[in-house]
Amino acid sequence: MARTLGADQAGRETRARILSAALRLFSERGYAGTSITAIAKAVGLSAPGVLHHFPDKQTLLLAVLEDRGRLVADEQDTSYEDLTLADALELMVRTVEENLHDREVIRLEHLCALAPGDSSELARQWSRLRLDRLRSASEVAAERALRNGEVSAVEKNDITRMADLIIATLVGLEHLWLLDENFDMVAGIRTLTTLLANQFDLPRPQA
């Protein structure tokens, strides 16, 4: 029994080391540019040793994302239906604050979004998922605010443009932060959300 428990613990520790190395290499080289052999070398294993825990590279990528909490069930999107427009702006600020602790994951998202054609489609789809959900949160909240009379009437196209502006700003701030870790992207998103709050006569985001 002791040997079994010890083997299980060793297996978990090895798995954790593989996940850590995979995230680092994926974020440095991209999904397509990272091989199972390179990940194995980083943790002192053979390629078959890595494949013992993860049968292929795509499964390993999924495990990395799950380990870092970056995969969200689709049904959770329905929570956006209850967001006020002010809530949506606060969500943007919280998202940026949380991303400060996930530099490697954010870098991986940016690399995957622009991945070459031979990369896994899964990697590209995943990198776009977060931005699509944030755009949806903005649009749903704005449309709800219009229906409830919380803001002045605007055109549907204006709501879409506002959501696109938020996403474009978020991506740009992340890019600047990836180039220079001292860049204050939280201050940048606070500036944008404050301008939008003033435009729609909403409380300033407090996140």
SSE map:
Elements: H1 2-29, H2 36-42, H3 47-53, H4 57-67, H5 85-99, H6 103-113, H7 121-147, H8 156-179, H9 185-199
Helix pairs in contact: 1-2, 1-4, 1-6, 2-3, 5-7, 5-9, 6-7, 6-8, 7-8, 8-9
Describe the structure in your own words:
This protein has helices at residues 2-29, 36-42, 47-53, 57-67, 85-99, 103-113, 121-147, 156-179, 185-199. It is mainly α. It has two domains: 2-67, Homeodomain-like (Arc Repressor Mutant, subunit A), CATH 1.10.10; 74-199, no CATH class. Helix 1 crosses helix 6 (103-113) and helix 5 runs antiparallel to helix 9.
Helix content: over 70%
- Number of distinct helices: 9
Q: Per the principal axes of the C-alpha atoms, what is the gross shape? A: elongated
Largest sheet: none
What's the pLDDT, averaged over the residues?
81
Low-pLDDT ranges: 72-78
How many structural domains does the protein architecture include?
Answer: 2
N-to-C series of helices and strands? HHHHHHHHH
Q: Which structural class do the helices and strands define? A: mainly alpha
Radius of gyration: 20 Å
Distance between the termini: 49 Å
Number of strands: 0
**What amount of the residues lies in strands?**
under 5%
